[in-house]
Amino acid sequence: MNRLLRFLPLLVALAVLTAAFPMVLRHITLRSDISDFLPEARSREAAFLLHELRQGAATRLLIAGIEGGPTADLARVSRAMAATLGDSGQFAIVANGAPRIDDVEVALLFAHRYALSPVASPDAFTETALREAFEALLDGLRSSAEPLLRRFGFADPTGAFIGLLRSWSGETRVATEQGVWMAEGPRALILAQTRAAGLDTEAQRGAADAIRAAFAAADPPPGVRLLLSGPGVFASEAAAAVRADVKLVSTLSFLLVASFLFWRYRSPMMLAVVAVPLALGTLAGLVAVDWVFGHVHGAALGFGMTMLGVCDDYPILLVTNRAPNEALRDTARRIWPTLRLAVAAAVAGLMPMLASGFPGLAQLGLFAAAGLAGAALSTRFLLPLLLPPEGLPVRALPERAAHVLLRLPELRIPVLAALALVAVALAFAGGPRLARDIADLSPVPEAVRALDGVLRHQAGAPDVRVVLSVTAADAEAALRASESAAAVLLRSGTIAGLDHPARYLPSAETQRARVSFLPDAATLAAQVDAARAGLPFRATAFTPFVDGMAEARRLPPLTIADLAEAPLLTARLSPLLRQEADGWRAILLPEGIRDIAALRAAAATISGLLLVDVKAETGVLLDQGIATALRWGAVGGVLVLLLLGAGRGLAGGLRIALVLAGALLLTFATLHAIGEEITIFHLTAALLLAGVGLDYALFIARTGQEDTEDAARALGAVITCMVTTLLTFGLLALCRTPVLHATGLTVCIGVASAFLLACTLAPRPASP
User: Fold this and answer.
1) Domains along the chain?
2) Rounded CA gap, 89 and 94, in Å?
3) Secondary structure (3-state) at 345
4) In this predicted model, what pLDDT tens digit does every residue of 378-421 receive, in sequence order?
5) Is the pTM of this model over 0.85?
6) What letter would DSSP give residue 36?
7) Contact, 290 vs 304, CB < 8 A?
8) Three-class SS string for 638-678?
């Protein structure tokens, strides 16, 4: 009980900090929008691609598959789900093979059917063509399509309106059964495009949940299951994967670190000692970022918490470096110059992130810098007040291990020669391999991505590898430009098909041309009478057809301004035609690309047409992000070198810089040797590695000013820090989530390298 009372101030402080977290979080805005981490566009192609990544139609598409039962049951569930989703208001488009269109839009589109449909040509209204249409109508009236044909067939025997709706139901190549799309399996398919932006992860997750709820409400028979893919699903699956990894790692690392610290310090109170600077550092980071940016990004919080893993070292170094009979306050005062320099250098290495031009990276740097400073100050000034003067007992470093480590400086020359050889070998190998596939950065499990590929292939959803666009001053000009570009590209033979806005809303010029092909009322009436001869139709059966043709000739072209009452047409058109700050943009999506080089050549002949190869452009963006990180990392390295030179002198600063450079060299050489491709995650982990390695190098360098016993104690403190780091980040290296795996692997390799190099390059300890 007396022992517990001695640590009462520490426990009270920890309780206060624990209570402060929910209070702070209530006043802080957390966001998960990834746009803060997208690089600045340096070309027209990059600017377009970044806009599509943020707001493009592809980011809003969800694909549902229903399987595990007879076709009739799957079709029933599909129809019920489509009806529920269409009425929910969350989706701009819900398509399952049967267009859903209200009477108001039917009337509008039916009146303009000849202007909108490509069937309006002189050949469509000859006596022979009309005779074939009437005979097909007669056959249809004897089939299951009789209700639909009685409604539209006599006013539109050429099928312009029905054909128009079918073309708008999607370019899927899946057969229609029971009135819905049905792929092999059988598997019913539904395409749903959300109204919310693709980067609105909460709305996308809500849309995915709405689809699952609609499936459950459709009362599926036993065995029938739902497959779902798309950004909303990716968001939830990625979050689930990260949560699973973090839960496993945090649980195991807590148990391992707690067991080790308990063995090393013979007291569970060491966990509380470590927790106080960590909690204060986290709170400092949260408050600083929210104050400067007005919100805290989830990634900044995650990386900041990881970076604050360095903070664990500070209380360990304080407690372990206490000499016999030395008060903890005196220890804090003695190690403060070294600790202060370590923190200042680490913060200097992070500060260039604030000027990188990436709001997300600036948040990462500010969070970590404020957190490190807060943790260091609490270690220096607060912990000595909260702990008993004698601190905590520490197991001595085994004598044999201490002597081995203290003799490593004798190997300095061979180690430096080995580092030079590694550098030469890595240079001859072309340097570390850089990741150029953005999919490698995705935390989405491979199985989920594979399912997405299968569903997209079955549904005929476009594999948007290449996107073309053209801009114009107004919507009409953009439609004309898309028509002209589509004609050239299709004639080139480089693609099998092309989706573009004029497929849904032709330009006014094209609409007028189509209407001009329509025969006048007298000519059409004569052709109808001749074609009807011998068929069992009344003389007045096709009067609506003749009258409707006359009305179509009088109507002005349909324009963007007329689409307020046409939600289906608007939904089809909006992803492909949009108004921007400086005009209108038309999007063209090629299908079945036969020769990308030939397509580029054909596109180059069209004035103002922009072609974006998505995979190649994302590779450029990734290279740009990595180059930016390396450039600012170099600036940070120079700042750290200057600070070390000022604090330790030229020789001491160069020695410590060599430890950090050698650790980074060995880390990236090892990553290259085991086949790892370097991503932005490895580079941000290198910042953490540099911060940890800096602590090791600075505190081990102090052994040159101490006798063997003090040097062994300093080594014991650093070894304790290293083991706790390895126990945490070693588990991260086993995770499947790319950011966690890259961070863990990089830090583990680097920490071991930094420790051994720090021991090897340290000054020899003074004789007792």
Assistant:
1) 1-31+266-395 (1.20.1640.10), 398-431+614-768 (1.20.1640.10)
2) 10
3) helix
4) 999 999 999 888 878 877 766 666 677 777 888 888 988 999 99
5) no
6) G
7) no
8) HHHHHHHHHHHHHHHHHHHHHHHHHHHHHHHHHHHHCCCCE
